[in-house]
Amino acid sequence: MSLLKSFIEVSADSHFPIQNLPFGVFKPSEQSVGRVGVAIGDFVCDLSAISDLALFEGPLLKNTKVFHEDSLNSFMGLGKPAWREARNTLQSLLSSENPTIRDNKTFRERIFHSIFTVIMLLPAKIGDYTDFYASKEHATNVGIMFRGKENALMPNWVHLPVGYHGRSSSVVVSGTNLKRPCGQSKNDADVLPFFTASKTLDFELEMGAFVGTGNDLGQPITVQNAKDHIFGLVLLNDWSARDLQKWEYVPLGPFLGKNFGTTISPWVVTLDALEPFICDAPTQDPKPLEYLQENGKNTYDINLTAALQTKNMTSPHVITTTNLKYMYWTLTQQLAHHTVNGCNMRPGDLLGTGTISGPTPDSFGSMLELSWKGEKTIPLVNGEERKFIQDGDTVVLSGQCKGNGFTVGFGTCSGTILPANK
After folding, report:
1. 270 is in an annotated binding site
2. Do the annotations mark residue 129 as ligand-binding?
3. Backbone phi, psi, residue 88, to 5°
4. Where in the chain is the domain with CATH 3.90.850.10?
């Protein structure tokens, strides 16, 4: 089978070939309004313009206005048949064999914008955000640090995907700067806590899954049909103030150490685009309860990196490389567990995977692990070193899947830490 190609020139290393077509929300200029687009090569394809030109001819999207909105929520709420109809239509319209847009200069001028000049917005209005703790390597590493090898994993960890409800209002799009958080901390030798700006600020290399279609209250989503409810994936940086978190998390879990900011990438890569990269998940032992049992391939081979750029560096330096396929609990298991009690999900809800760590020290997904609780330093390419994030540091996450002659990627997810409020 010949490789599908677009009439838009796409470089070999681009994350956005015609095989990808991730969805996002953008503004062509500061004065314009947000609308839905897809990325292809160095361009954003304006779906509101395609709709206005009556080029969506399928029964589910003909005459639709969902692409004129400043979020993906309405489109995601239409369900998987509509997502697939949009993707198939766009692959046809952007194909090198289709003259409809290719040979019409007026159409091209209305539809395409430079990806370097548009303003990217959050892809969805996020009603609820849940963060999981689903990497066995990460949970084991953290457990060893704070409880010792004998008690590394809590008894429930191998039986269910552990998670907590995060703060959706502080989820921000890539490129948004965040201030160093303040809160209470306490040293082991101290009797009383003290108020401070976080001194051990960290990133967590994660992915996020956007819920497309939800479920009614009281009606769980099964692990077998969970894929039909997941619209697509983004990169996610779950920034973490380790010192604040350490003091506050007992007995109810993270609070100020997490809710000051979570950064996501602007482009949502659909599960259809990721289907060529589906692979086996890790073997689960003991066998999970029946409602979490899956058959076949249920995760994706997505190469992930985290890079750090200090104020003295001209480009980011990769400090870890990992892969989504290492995750013990899959995305579908996470969604099934989230709803097994009848919890209702809605279009635009966001599920974080939890830190994705691999089996080797160079694949750990946080600075807490890379520096092993600050006991060693992380060398950088310019001779600097870090244990945790300093003011002015920028963290850049990236992810991609390598296909036969093409790459399906997520772009980048970046953020810079500014000094705390005085």
Report:
1. no
2. no
3. -65, -40
4. 129-418
Query: Residue 370 and residue 384: Cα distance in Å, rounded?
Result: 15
Strand order in the sheet with 35-40: 112-114, 43-46, 35-40, 23-27, 119-121
Q: Residues 322-347: pLDDT tens digits?
A: 999 999 999 999 999 999 999 999 99
pLDDT in tens, 288-306: 999 999 999 999 999 999 9
Give the phi and the psi of residue 39 in degrees, each rounded to 5.
-95, 135
Burial class of residue 86, CB neighbours in 10 A (0-12, 13-18, 19+): buried
| Superfamily of the domain at 23-121 | Fumarylacetoacetase, N-terminal domain (2.30.30.230)
138's CB contacts (< 8 A; 6+ apart) are 354, 355, 356, 357, 364, 365, 366, 369
For 368, residues 6+ apart whose C-beta sits below 8 A from its C-beta are: 142, 145, 200, 202, 240, 242, 388
Residues of the chain with CATH 2.30.30.230: 23-121
Distance CA 7, CA 275 (A): 23
Q: Is 138 a catalytic residue?
A: yes
CATH topology of domain 129-418: Fumarylacetoacetate hydrolase; domain 2 (3.90.850)
What are 50-54's contacts with CB under 8 Å, separation 24+?
Answer: 50/90, 50/93, 50/111, 52/110, 53/107, 53/110, 53/111
Q: Are 31 and 118 in contact (CB under 8 A)?
A: no
206 is in an annotated binding site: yes
Does 245 count as an annotated binding residue? yes
Over range 158-167, report the average pLDDT.
Answer: 97
Shortest CA distance to 352 belongs to which of 256, 419, 220, 254?
A: 254
CB 36 within 8 A of CB 69: yes
Residue 127 has pLDDT above 80, yes or no: yes
The reply, when asked if residue 249 is annotated as ligand binding, is yes
Q: Does the annotation flag 147 for ligand binding? A: yes
Instruction: Tell me the residue type at 11.
Output: S
Which member of 15, 68, 113, 138 is catalytic? 138
Q: Which pTM does this prediction carry?
A: 0.98
